[in-house]
Amino acid sequence: MPSGTQSGARKIGQGMERLAQSLGAFCLVAIFFLLLIGVVCRMMRIEFYWGSELSGILMAWLTVLCLPWLTRNRAHLSTDIASGTLPPLLRRALRFLGYILMLGYLGVLIWYCGDLALKNYHSGARDAGILRLPLSILQFGVVLGLALTFLSQLRLLFHEGERHELEQ
Amino acid sequence: MTELLLMGLSVIVMLLAGFPIALVLGLTGIFWTWAYSPAYLPGLAHTVYNTVSSETLIAIPLFILMGQIVQKARIAERFYEALARMLVRLPGGLLHANVLACGIFSAVSGSSIATASTIATAAIPSQRRFGYDLRLSTGSLAAGGTLGILIPPSIPLIVYCSLVEESVGLTFIAALVPALMLLAMFHGYILVRAVANPSCAPVPEKSVDDDGRMARFVRDVLPLTVIILVILGTIYSGLMTASEAAAGGVAISVIVAAIARTLSRELLFRAIVESARLSAMILFVVTGAQLFSYAVYTWGFNQIIVEQVGTLPWPPVAILGVLILIYLVLGMFVDAISLLLMTVPVVHPVITMLGYDPIWFGVLLVLLLEIGLVTPPVGMNLFTIKAVAGEIPLKDITLGSLPFVLLLLAGVVLLIVFPKIALWLPFS
């Protein structure tokens, strides 16, 4: 790939991860206010029953929107008790394998979650809560976050491949 | 049964390969669901959506945010320094401050690593200056930090409750007395050691300064105490759910940081972003664990295990003993939340079949996970203290923690012999 295109793609990728993370952080702040407002309203006997329902949706988005950053920075929880003792070449091979498996895992999740979101969108299914929001609102957000994570994982794989080529 | 063993083996192999735990659990779940019948695969999507939007888990990001604010606003360090000033003249002086400050701060932060690093940074220089036995000192810091995952609000307990569908509020209340019991045991041990051998914790001839000591003590100790009391008080009184109490905790920590004049826009921004990242990290693992559970339940492994265990000619306590041994061994290698997520779907049905209370087991399980934090080779608290303490050998920190590990084990035995320790308060 030409270096100009490469650096452009990198910038877009980084910008996308930063934006997704900022949206995730915004979701966290919104959850905080929703729950706090719920408590205050209850004390003042004002009806506000849908705070925790909306918070659930926001938490789902928060989780998937922060995943691209975690993936890109290899910040997922793992244990290196055995892999840390392996020779560097084998360690790298396992890391590659881990990236490919993660792509496969995310791919399966996107496929099935996307399928369900589409079905719910077409059928107009709504959740059983007070807001009766369309289920596809939550679900498309989750699919989008997973798709962004997939792209970040792909970038990580290419980056690792490039580094390997340079080292050789 | 062969499939069950293969499933367990696939988890262990991928874990040893160093793959992310979320991937290990999730991929295993997907593969084994597919192996059972591809027709069940669409059910995975429901599991994902239900997990990431679970109202039980909403408390996790908020408790993490509260801990981040408290940590970044230096409230914990002030808390430690105030305790140290007050307790320095007691036998064991600053070691009591180590345990108390670690216990209380880790309850607020929800992270043993954050606690160990924050309190150890403030504690080790003064203890070195006063000539404390550094083995005992670092051991008390490492062990004190473990209490946080038991003292409510506890993130592992929230995760446990979401997996077994128990009340978070009741489980928090159940954990309170065992946590206080362990805290008392730690203090008792330090007192005995200091009385038997005063050179391990020398009492300084003169206190640093006595002017306005009480006023400063109240000012520095009050914030964390208020946060804990508000959270527990509102949950216990039924005024708030665990998630609402977490939001209240965030609000109070912001107010406290503002009063302490350590609050800034940058601090808040960093705390929010960091909390969002940590929450996503944990919730992604929880999602993987739920996919794993989905496969376990699809195959009916939980039933098979329950039936197999039911045919054993052993009393329930012997089976519990075997489970405890497994947890102690696994806890040496796998971190607390991952271990909890990997095992609860399989172990919980066995526990209920044996007639044990799931809330009681949740408390016992977290106690066992605590031990894993201070036992080598993967004792996260030991590594954290080592990172802060610098030249103190890891061996010394580990040996210093050993008596506290024995106390934690004594706590496990007490909880098994007297389950009321955990159960009387929530059901009184």
Percentage of residues assigned to helices of chain A = over 70%
- Biggest sheet descriptor of chain A: none
Radius of gyration of chain A: 20 Å
- Into which percent range does the helicity of residues of chain B fall? over 70%
Number of strands of chain A: 0
Shape of chain B: globular
| Overall pLDDT score of chain B | 85
What structural category do the secondary elements of chain A indicate?
mainly alpha
Overall number of domains of chain B: 1
Assembly state (oligomeric): heterodimer
List how many beta strands of chain B DSSP finds.
0
Q: Largest beta sheet of chain B, briefly?
A: none
- Compute the separation of the termini of chain B in Å: 42 Å
Radius of gyration of chain B: 22 Å
Number of helices of chain B: 20
Mean pLDDT of chain A: 87
- Taken as a percent bin, the fraction of beta residues of chain B is under 5%
> How much β-strand is present in the residues of chain A?
under 5%
Are there runs of chain A of 5+ residues with pLDDT below 50, and where? none
Name the helix and strand elements of chain A from N-terminus to C-terminus, one letter apiece: HHHH
